[in-house]
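User: Please predict the structure of the protein below. I'd like the answer in structure-token form so I can feed it into my own downstream comparison script.

Assistant: Understood. Taking the following sequence of 89 residues as input:
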Amino acid sequence: MISYRKEAFLKYAIKDLVMPTRTFSEVKGEDNLLIMPCFVDDCIGLKVVTSYPSNHKTNSPVTHALVLINDRETGDLIIYNKRHNFDSD
């Protein structure tokens, strides 16, 4: 997976991708939903992130993220990656 990340950063650096403006939605108070699409080579990427600073009051993580990578030709799901608790990364 590291080589994919390195390649993605390189493509970003040379602007060899299409990255529409992310969608930012206030859910409640300081809690937010972010949706970030990207098109590169033969893939479609989508990152969905919830940022809930109010979770500091509970045992739930502040940040959750889901990354989907789909084949650009067929739409088939290639990668699914779920993460949470980025505060400790």
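That's the full token string. Residues 44 and 75 are 8 Å apart (CA to CA).
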